Amino acid sequence: MGRRPGVFVRLVSMEEGRRLQRISRTAKDPVRLRRAIVVMMSAQGQSVRDIVSLMQVSEDYVRDVIHAFNERGFDALDPKWSGGRPKAINDRMRERICLIARTSPADWGIAAFSTWSLTKLAEHLIQRRVVPTISRETLRRILREGKVSWQTTTTWKASTDPDFLTKMHRVLELYDAPPADGRVICVDEFGPLNLMPRKGKAWRPRRSPRRLRATYNRHDGVMHMLAALDLGTGKMYYRIRQRKRWREFLSLLKTLRARWPGEKLYIVLDNFSPHKHPNVRAWAAVNDIELVFLPTYGSWLNWIESEFAALRYFALSGTDHRSHSEQNAAIGAYIRWHNTRTEPKTNFAPDSPIRTWTDYPAKAA
Fold it and tell me: In this record, what's one Pfam family (predicted)?
């Protein structure tokens, strides 16, 4: 068998030579880089056998690259990837998988369980011939790409208050445009204040969480905090008592009345029975205090709830107070810190859907 004839790249111009050199220095695609080097070496007069020896590729590969460059020019340097094996699970199947995953097994007449696991869902998809076969990992990836995630079921407590919207708009009106003749104050109870280890978060060395005792007793009983949030200043006022009867609530109202004499007080509060006690109502009416009750199951409209959430997070989370005096001191220290940095409360849920409600949604969306 005779020696194969020599093959060389066609005559390369000065500009093409610079382009080949640039590609050989900057190309990130390994296929494009290797082909450019083969062409450049051939243009320099090196034989196929020399290129094979230096590049460690086959002789047929070098000849194919040179012929392709002579025919198509620089387009021959770009790899032409094939489409690969067609998808076993097409886009329509994926969409249907995501839809089925969002249903309940009961919707398909399966009474044995109430929710899907990946294994059960995969078996169901195969049984229903949605897909010929599917692994758990592929199913997990399809659901993730389809933005279907594993979530905890939440509950919704619907209000039975026939005047829900009227009461809500009254509260929002006080928040948005406080009356010029008085002061808007949100009042609520916080507690019960147990003496117990409370879980929390803290910066710690990795895999070295702070440890709290798991057992505790209630020999010292519980206490309750009655608090008020002045929207005009953003400051909180509070008192901690052993009980939260109408007497303790009335005492708080008297304290608030004494703090702002001569101003009408608009007290936003929930429907806790001590708030509606006849003695409380009678005293409030005589002392220029308007009790503005929230809708039933509408405590989330009380602006002080967000302040309670912050107090719980920053003053109580991660603590293990051994006495009420110690715990009360921690609460007091936080509220003093809060009151030195606060500002008037404005813009209550400006973009919330509640602003556009024309009727009360009786169930979760």
Answer: DDE_3
Asked if 298 contacts 322 with a C-beta cutoff of 8 angstroms, the reply is no
- Two tokens, residue 329: 């001191």
- Helix runs in 161-303, H state only: 164-176, 246-259, 278-286
Integer Cα distance of 301 and 296 in angstroms = 11
* Residue 190 three-state SS: strand
pLDDT digits (tens, 9 = 90+) for 205-256: 988 988 999 888 889 999 999 999 999 999 999 999 999 999 999 999 999 9
Neighbours of 121 (CB within 10 A): 21
The three-state secondary structure class of 16 is helix
Which residue, chain included where needed, has tokens 């117990």? 196
Amino acid identity of 248? E
The SS3 call for residue 183 is strand
Q: Rounded to two decimals, what is the model's pTM? A: 0.66
Residue 4 pLDDT exceeds 70: no
